[in-house]
Design brief:
Length: about 170
């Protein structure tokens, strides 16, 4: 289920008069942009490699220049584009933490062998993420006690059946 590219930011607008852009980080820590020089730009369904020059990093915004973008007009043309990295350059995650893109599409089961379908969306609620199975057929809070097994390499998530009955929101 693993994706080839990971979105780490979205270009929200031009910044200044020399072609820089403001990027909204899509990662848990904007520090991952420090020293980043090689990335990919996802725009209009296409992904192309780009060279970056990062000038400032704040928790909620990154200012950088994409090589070849030297005017505000050229920077504005990048509005809405995603900055991505490939698998080899993604950050390492702590144990029991997963990339959302790796979770999407995983088949879900419970420890009693019941199949629920594919995980179609992950909602970040603040307290804990919520997994949506089959476009709302089942909603499951991503709690350690409900997650019996998460194997993104094989596209498989197993919920503890007893806990799922307590915390799962099933479509009627």
């Amino acid at each position: 289920m693993s994706a080839a590219f990971y979105r780490i930011g979205v270009i929200v607008r031009p910044h200044g008069v020399h072609g820089a852009v403001k990027v909204e980080p899509l990662t848990d820590s904007s520090k991952r942009f420090r020293g980043l020089q090689d990335a990919f730009l996802e725009m209009h369904g296409e992904i192309r490699p780009v060279q970056l020059c990062v000038s400032s990093v704040a928790p909620d915004a990154v200012i950088l220049t994409v090589a070849g973008t030297e005017t505000p007009e050229a920077a504005n043309a990048l509005r809405g584009a995603y900055l991505c990295v490939d698998r080899a350059h993604r950050v390492r995650l702590p144990k029991d933490t997963y990339f959302v893109t790796d979770l999407i599409g995983c088949e879900t089961f419970d420890t009693d062998g019941n199949a629920y379908g594919k995980l179609t969306e992950v909602y970040e609620t603040g307290a804990n993420d919520v997994y949506e199975i089959e476009h709302g057929r089942l909603m499951v809070p991503a709690l350690k006690r409900v997650l019996s097994e998460v194997d993104t390499d094989n596209g498989r998530i197993v919920f503890d059946a007893a806990v799922l009955k307590e915390v799962g929101l099933f479509e009627d």
